[in-house]
Amino acid sequence: MGSTMRPDRKACDGPIFDPRPTPAILLDDPLEFILADHYRQRQICHALRTMAAVGAVNQDDAIRITHFLRDELWLHHLDEDEDLFPVLRRRMRSERDLKLGQTLEELTSYHQQSEAAIAQLVTFLLADGSSEMIVVPEAMGRMMLAYAADEHRHLAIENGVVMAIARTRLTRQDRADISRRMKARRGLAD
Ligand SMILES: [Fe+2]
Ligand SMILES: [Fe+2]
User: How many CA atoms lie within 13 A of 167 on its CB side?
Assistant: First the structure.
């Protein structure tokens, strides 16, 4: 165990992140798939907070979290930026929706801004492949907490505003079109 592990904490016994991918069957309803991804992002935030509090992460959890951050999250960002948000913009009805348009722009900007933090997390989690338990330095712990806080704010807006509006505005055809594009992005047949 690393020397900087918080003395008042102990490492978790079991996995701190469920490694199962979002079920592909949910792609038939893209809003459900995106919501399921959001649930997994919340799990990642919880895992990062646990790692920061404990001051360590075991190798298996580091690999699981890396897989999501490096291999899945960028797909989720494209699902939103290239599919969900553009369709939602086409369904905006009035000047009252100008605020929604601005919110979507801010969310896309956040996706781009978060790439540096995600890359930093992945680099750290992959840096020490030989240790069973990876020590999380306090500076990295603070960075994990900051990323988790930003992600929570982002998810609150997406779930509380964007997804709520999408449920009422998207037509059946919109959902089918988004579903087809999200499947194609993952190399799956419609
Ligand atoms: Fe999202
Ligand atoms: Fe997002």
Answer: 10
